[in-house]
């Protein structure tokens, strides 16, 4: 699953002791395993080897360009949702012909940039967006390749904030009106219909919702074929979950065994597009933090760390669970405590009611933080963004330097009337 293991009661990433990295780069910091990232990608890719496919990593999960470059070197592409993610993907060397662009709020400037970059296709989320893409493509003389993101109204059985495939969600075109939207797209002069797209949510721990949604999409694809609209790409999105605590999500091979037969036997010869994010990077990264203080308030114990909700917001935002373990195993008796950060919010916590053995100055590892950790971090409380480092074997490489206070002020100005 990952390469974070204890050796003689000390936590290592591959063959590098985490405590040594902490002493050299300071805390808090994100740490990723090159071997885990590579193996996760290769396992996912191999699972779908029986059919033509493209693995488009969901950049929003972890947009660091070193990680994007690692996946590009393995033959991967990118699932993007903004102009900034397009910029990162191209800078990382991801080929435009393996980039797909979703998101409900693409701006004119973002559409323009993606057309000039010659990406594989836009995953269009509304009729208005379809018309806008056609308009911009016509203005600059470029044919826009598109798929429609279809909302299949399938319950992904996940947290409501990361569910995207139900009628009440903002994403995609309702499946009931998809055919008429495809017909409208075929009448436009500046778009080329290539695919069909769906994505029902994140952190899915069952295969059934994937199968249900794909079956509905393929029935629509059959109707499109009858209507003379030939689909080349079926984009099934991402969302496969990982183990944070006691979840038992399906392995990529199990997912492939369930959905490959649905694609493989069809005479249309679809190319499958997959958009894994969390499943590739989640368990490949951790957040390392140092205990600042131990505090007792009434019956409650608090372990106060130098990492806070600005560094890892998932526990505060989703009440998400991350296992928290000491970098050095202790013989001392464990206490039950809330592990909290320094942010001036009561919602600033990394874990609640945890049994932990630690003291002031100790290092803790917040596990499974490689997805939606650094990517959702902020400068709240004017705290600099932290270091990110990548381990390969015994060596580590800083892939994002720590911000300093001056970095945070670079784009700010005081108007002359205040001077």
Descriptive account of the structure:
- α2 (about 35-45) packs parallel to α9 and α5 (about 110-115) crosses α6.
- The strands form 3 sheets. Strands 4, 14, 15, 16, 17, 18, 19, 20 and 21 form a 9-stranded mixed β-sheet that branches.
- The chain has helices at about 20-25, 35-45, 65-75, 85-90, 110-115, 125-140, 180-185, 210-225, 250-265, 280, 315-320, 405-410, and strands at about 5, 10-15, 15, 30-35, 55-60, 75-80, 100, 120-125, 145-150, 175, 190-195, 235, 270-275, 285-295, 300-305, 325, 335-340, 350-355, 365, 385-390, 395-400.
- The N and C termini lie far apart (about 55 Å).
- A hairpin with a 2-residue loop joins β20 (about 385-390) and β21 (about 395-400).
- It is globular.
- The chain is built from 12 helices and 21 strands.
Which SSEs are present, and which pair or pack?
Elements: E1 4-7, E2 10-13, E3 16-17, H1 18-25, E4 29-33, H2 34-47, E5 53-58, H3 65-73, E6 77-80, H4 83-91, E7 99-101, H5 108-117, E8 121-124, H6 127-140, E9 144-151, E10 173-174, H7 178-187, E11 191-197, H8 208-226, E12 233-235, H9 252-264, E13 271-274, H10 278-281, E14 285-297, E15 300-305, H11 314-318, E16 324-326, E17 335-340, E18 349-356, E19 363-366, E20 387-392, E21 395-400, H12 405-409
Helix pairs in contact: 2-9, 5-6, 8-9
Main structural class:
alpha/beta
Number of helices: 12
Rg computed from alpha carbons, rounded to a whole number of angstroms: 23 Å
| Strand segment tally | 21
Question: pLDDT below 50 for ≥5 consecutive residues: which ranges?
Answer: 158-167
Taken as a percent bin, the fraction of beta residues is: 25-35%
- Give the proportion of residues in helices: 25-40%
Which geometry do the CA atoms define?
A: globular
Largest sheet: 9 strands, mixed
């Amino acid at each position: 699953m990952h390469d974070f293991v204890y050796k003689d009661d000390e936590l290592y990433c591959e063959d590098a002791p985490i405590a040594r990295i902490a002493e050299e780069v300071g805390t808090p910091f994100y740490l990723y395993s090159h071997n885990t990232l590579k193996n996760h990608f290769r396992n996912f890719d191999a699972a779908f080897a029986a059919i033509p496919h493209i693995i488009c990593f969901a950049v929003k999960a972890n947009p660091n360009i070193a990680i994007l470059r690692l996946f590009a070197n393995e033959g991967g592409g990118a699932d993007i949702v903004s102009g900034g993610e397009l910029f990162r993907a191209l800078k990382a060397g991801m080929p435009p012909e393996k980039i797909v662009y979703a998101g409900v709020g693409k701006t004119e400037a973002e559409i323009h940039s993606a057309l000039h970059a010659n990406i594989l296709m836009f995953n269009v989320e509304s009729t208005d967006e379809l018309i806008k893409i056609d308009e911009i493509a016509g203005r600059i003389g470029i044919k826009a390749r598109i798929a429609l993101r279809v909302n299949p109204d399938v319950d992904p059985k996940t947290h409501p904030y990361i569910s995207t495939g139900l009628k009440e969600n903002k994403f995609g075109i309702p499946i009931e009106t998809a055919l008429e939207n495809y017909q409208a797209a075929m009448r436009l002069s500046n778009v080329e219909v290539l695919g069909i797209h769906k994505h029902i949510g994140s952190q899915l721990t069952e295969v059934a919702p994937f199968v249900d949604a794909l079956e509905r999409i393929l029935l629509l694809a059959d109707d499109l074929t009858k209507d003379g609209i030939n689909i080349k790409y079926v984009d099934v999105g991402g969302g496969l979950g990982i183990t944070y605590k006691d979840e038992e999500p399906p392995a990529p091979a199990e997912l492939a065994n369930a959905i490959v037969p649905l694609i493989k036997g069809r005479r249309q010869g679809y190319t499958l597009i997959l958009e894994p994010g969390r499943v590739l990077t989640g368990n490949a990264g951790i957040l390392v933090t140092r205990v600042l203080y131990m505090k007792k308030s009434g019956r409650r114990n608090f372990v106060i760390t130098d990492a806070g909700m600005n560094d890892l917001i998932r526990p505060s935002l989703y009440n998400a669970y991350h296992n928290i373990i000491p970098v050095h195993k202790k013989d001392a008796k464990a206490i039950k405590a809330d592990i909290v950060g320094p942010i001036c919010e009561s919602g600033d916590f990394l874990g609640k009611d945890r049994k932990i053995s630690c003291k002031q100055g100790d290092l803790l590892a917040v596990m499974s933080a490689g997805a939606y950790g650094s990517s959702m971090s902020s400068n709240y409380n004017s705290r600099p963004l932290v270091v990110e480092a990548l381990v390969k074997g015994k060596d580590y490489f800083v892939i994002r330097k720590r911000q300093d206070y001056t970095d945070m002020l670079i784009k700010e100005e005081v108007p002359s009337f205040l001077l």
